[in-house]
Amino acid sequence: TVLGGQWYTPGTGDAIRIEQSSHISFADITVFGNGNRLGAGVRAIESSFVTLRDGHYEGLRNGAILLSTNDSISVRNHFSNGGEDGMKIIDSQRVILAHNSCTGFEPLPGYHPDCLQLWSLPGRPLQSDIYLLNNLAIGPQQSFVSFTPVELSGTRLSFVGNYAATTSGHTITCNGCTDSYIADNMLVVLPDAPWRALLKVNQTDPSNIVENNAYFDLRGQHGVALPDPVFSDYVPSIAGLVGSRWDDRSFGLAVAASAPEPESWAMLVAGFGLVGAAIRRRRARVPGCVA
């Protein structure tokens, strides 16, 4: 377990690299780019039981990457001023991504930033049992997506309680997903968006459950506040079983002292620069564990 400290990318490489390791945790760290936004903060390869929690990742091309890394958790991390993606989850199984946030991204030329991006690899098992819970993405980036580079991007994927406020056409996208659960998300199209963002999930596949998602189209409505995030109390079936056994395996807000409270999330939303009358809504919470 590595607790605290400041880390810097060497240029185009990784500030922290984990290979063929297990039960590794990086907590309360701050990782900076070197000014060119071309490096990665943390890259884990062929590892397992990795915890990344309560970290701050600033000015990086990719904040964190889990490649062929199973039984892991990323919780309460903040990614800002990124050039490509907040987190990439590639060829991995049994991962929880909860209460992470992405703000202030500026796309590098030729790239389309995603807050959290998932994909499977050709010739490998589809990614499965990955949970995106109560994450937040605000700005000119795609938010929470699973769609490349193969048509069937994953199975048993859960997108629950996430907040996406974007100018992009992708809020939550899960192309070709099967046996997946997409519920209780809040999807906001920002005033300057050139098009209407959509929830892109195959709802004709009976194995997918899509329900209780809220949609706000604010195009052209300058001076109107964003709706406040509303978190879900959904509990993944792998809760307490993933991440390092030597460190925090929880996925909620209240565990670490540095974890943002709900008021802090609201401030992130307000700080985006949209002021005026608040748009609020109340909705039922998604019920608990789906085993």
Question: Gist?
Answer:
By secondary structure, this protein is mainly β. It is 3% helix and 40% strand.
Structure write-up:
Mean pLDDT is 83; it is low at 255-267 and 269-291. A nine-stranded parallel beta sheet has the order 1-4-7-10-13-16-19-22-25, with no helix packed on it. Strands 2-5-8-11-14-17-20-23-26 form a nine-stranded parallel beta sheet, covered by helices on one side. Helix content is 3%, strand content 40%. The chain is globular, with a radius of gyration of 17 Å. 48% of the residues are buried. The protein is mostly beta strands and 291 residues long. It is built from one helix and 26 strands.
The value of Rg in angstroms is: 17 Å
The proportion of strand residues reads: 35-45%
Average of per-residue pLDDT values:
83
Identify the strand order in the major beta sheet.
1-4-7-10-13-16-19-22-25
- The termini sit apart by 30 Å
Enumerate how many helices there are, as a single number.
1
The helical percent reads under 10%
Low-confidence stretches: 255-267, 269-291
| Content-based structural category | mainly beta
